[in-house]
Amino acid sequence: MSLHDGADVGKEAQEGRIRADKRIPKIENAQNFCFVIGRPRSGTTVFKSMLQTHPSVFAVGEIFNESNPRSYFHFQQTLLHDDPCAAFPSRGIGNFLKYLENCRSLACKLRPEVNVVVLDIKYDQAHLLCEPWWSIAALPRVFSLLRELGCRIIDVHRSDLVGLVISNQIAIQTKIYHSNKLGRGEVQDAKIRIDPQRLLKEVTATSKAYERIHRHFRDYKRYLMVTYEQMFDREQFSASLLDRVASFLGVAGEFDPVPRLAKLLSDDTYAYVENAAELRAFLKDADDSGTLPVPFQG
Amino acid sequence: MSGEPAREVRNLTLLVSHDRSGSHYLGSYIRSLPGQTMIDEICNEQALDPATNPLSFFGYRHRRSLEMPDYSLRRTPKVVSALLDEYFQFVLDSSSTSRAAMDIKYGHIHNFEAAWWPIFRRPFLFDYARGRGLKVIHLSRWNSLETVVSNMVAESRKVWHAIGKKGAAAPSDAITLDKQHLSRQIALLNEQKNAIFKWSRDLKCLSVLYEELVDPTHGRACRTRIAEFLESSPPEKFSSPYRKVTPPIQLMIRNWDEISNFCRESGLSQYLLGTPR
What we know:
The structure holds 2 protein chains of 2 kinds. Chain A is built from 9 helices and 9 strands.
């Protein structure tokens, strides 16, 4: 791995890095790293569990989630043993490149047949890898970094933004994020109150994030956008999605189409909302007045 | 935002500003106020070396993380608030005065972010400032064209401040500008300034324009307002060690005719007319 001058950095990086390190990072065979990115509650976990069923794929998990023992931050702790200055943000990019190599070594050691290493980054954690200087108007640094390196990106969107925000609020309030946390025969039956203004803010911010991230990657050949709503066909991953993903990753179509996680919520997310009538009326007004964002189509 | 506000932390003021907005000039003024300390860019590793300068935010976070791994591993809003409480308290305790201001550039704001923070939400630092009752001075420069050109000239000369032996730029340092690049940089700066104005609405915030601050006629009144905001009294006389580095932009842009025409055609003509009063 090294740093070199001059490469395809994308407009976002040019704008973000006004005072940042202008050298472009590099890593060997970066296309073997595939980053699954998305907002929480957009289906990234079930999607990643499908990727993991392939014999050539090794999944590291959410790399900026402290509860994952293979996270970037755990790796950073090990770097600190040799170099007390390793935690300074000016080292962030170099540390991250070392982390990627470490993930690759781990994958080769545990599963020598692997040739794709999958790493998850939630949009809401993406800013945790940063350089000391970065524009507040730009996307988090990691997005331009992945493009500069030449990694593959699968961006998971959910068209139903209201459903995404409600689902996220239910998960935060109940601390149940996936169905595997429920007991046998148990279902999520929580009822929560949603602040309509807050919901609108989150929906708007998500729509903006989708649009900006898609714009950043749309002319990048190693980018694939998938939507949660198109993921399944009669309780299984759709065959067309699996074909697209296999072709994108350059692997044979050997994914298991049976989801490893059951749906946590029913399709009617309003059923979990105490003030559902108020929320529906508020959103209808927002839609009529044009303040509710149109679902992002890509 | 959780936990009890630390009373002393309220004696801290954040000077939020962008590049080439005169923050060093304003910093020298704040430094001249009785009972007030001014701390340089706490997230600039060149200004405050994290390995050697105890006031560096990165250095402080690193040292504390060795004892409290959560400060680097589990950056929930509660944990980041606790870290900032400790750090700001440490800064105040380290200064010889009861009040302190610290320079935080737009480009450094993301360094205080908490985990699980949606992209494009108001940065965590602003929520923290609101919760703790911190004062904020937002310094910006109205003329975005001059600001961007000044930055480009500084970048090209590698001289950002005229102090001591460092000379001001001369017409021989003039640069040729690319219209589209200039336009993008202006749009980006304006987007950032507008975002900070929006995010500071519910804070104890004083907005200051560079053009007002250094104005020969009105500058004194502006500086007095700043002193009062900081609960201090203005000095009898003030003379900053910093001088203006960039001569008028007409002299610093080789293709001035092309650029000025472009500004007129692109809705940027207000920046050619000087500062409105």
